[in-house]
Amino acid sequence: MSEPVPDPELQQVLRELRDREPVFHRPELGTTRDDLERQTAPDFFEVGASGRRYSRGHVIATLLARYARSESDEWETTDFHCRAVGPETYLLTYLLRQGERRSRRVTAWRRTDGQWQVLYHQGTLVTE
């Protein structure tokens, strides 16, 4: 499979979004309910590696519990690609390594009035 050719006009968007990923693993972007609601669209949902669909409310509740435990979160991201899919709407893909666990991630982002909001997120385990 050939690698996507980066669009030079998307390089700034790519830099901004790369600094927000992995989504929900960046406590510096906020850890309160208000922060998380601001970062996610009202109709946001996520599909986990299991294939299960998680609502915005479930994801926020899970994150609030995680942040309250102050667990260490070791990860590494690589292979970022970004493409425009609509006005101020972008699809970001990347590889996430968490110890031995690897997953391919996709996040749909929208920028409104200079603020980024997550529309959709999915992670798929890499088994190869």
UniProtKB/TrEMBL annotation:
SUPFAM superfamilies: NTF2-like (SSF54427)
Signal peptide (from-to): none
Pfam family, one: DUF4440
Annotated DUF4440 domain residues: 33-118
Official protein name in the record: DUF4440 domain-containing protein
Annotated organism of origin: Motilibacter deserti
